[in-house]
């Protein structure tokens, strides 16, 4: 990703970036290693070296759960535990930390045509700006915009229809729903005058089938766009877009899911939603941006991409310039052994392969125990209380009450017991 593009989009997002609390310099090991390597082929950690003390002070603001990645890995597996043992070359190497911040890992999708995907155009295609929808005054647009962003204390906006015809009311209804996604409208009569009232849609109605607005026959049925996201996985981003657009998530299609702990750029397609509606979301999205709109006659399919382009930052390097240059030259010329990455085995004290083994054996008591039992390592306080309640009472209802968010794995297991 070009530095200028990254800075430009980050500025548009308006996110306050802050550095994590200063950490102690990691001691170089006797043999080269890369700590916390989530990429395939990372060299193994050495078990015989002393563990570093956890840094004091507050965690980074970038970590939404209040813990650092090092905290999560402290009680987890090492490369040696899962058989990542060999190097492809015999140079000395160096050590460092990957993904200390989510912004250290930047992913650009490479599409079916071999083009690296960038978000560099926020404009709307000309054919998606119908003049007949320009029926709202600037004051009305301001009020509706504040309502959309929950800044209107009244909870709704009423627009009197001066030219009281069905055609005029239809245009106003359509203009509000098109230009201000997330708002619903209705017509009310007061003292002989008709008003169109805009308000926030909610509940199951918000997830109903998309409205059948007029769709030009010469326009492709799918709006393709580029999604830029920070510290959010692909499905979370899709769910946010679905909520604002009042769609089911399965109306969207994509070629692959991208990491949460990263800055990523990828193509998305959605059925019969205009670029104008999508573009309006940029006013209210957090850590998300959409653009590069175009219309096509087909959705996207999983696996259609050619690959991903990664820009990676390695921090806290302990090694000489010569060692770093030698390692980079070897990586460029020789490559690396394509092991399964450590993330495939989990980042907590309970390895995911142990859970998988119990599932294959149909040992469901063991599966439940592995998922719910107390474990060492950094976790949110409510999750610790949930595990303790389960270990103490074996009461799924009591343990579930300890979780504010029931959609996590532990919550879904408890809800089904």
UniProtKB/TrEMBL annotation:
Residues 1-66 are annotated as: Disordered. GO terms for cellular component: nucleus. The keyword Manganese does not apply. Pfam families: TruD. One of its GO terms (biological process) is pseudouridine synthesis. Residues 48-66 have a biased composition (Acidic residues). Keywords: Isomerase, tRNA processing. GO terms for molecular function: pseudouridine synthase activity; RNA binding. It catalyses: a uridine in tRNA = a pseudouridine in tRNA; a uridine in mRNA = a pseudouridine in mRNA. Residues 335-417 form the TRUD domain. Residues 13-38 have a biased composition (Basic and acidic residues). SUPFAM superfamilies: Pseudouridine synthase. Belongs to the pseudouridine synthase TruD family. PANTHER family: PSEUDOURIDYLATE SYNTHASE 7 HOMOLOG (PTHR13326:SF31), TRNA PSEUDOURIDINE SYNTHASE D (PTHR13326). This is TRUD domain-containing protein. It comes from Anabas testudineus (Climbing perch).
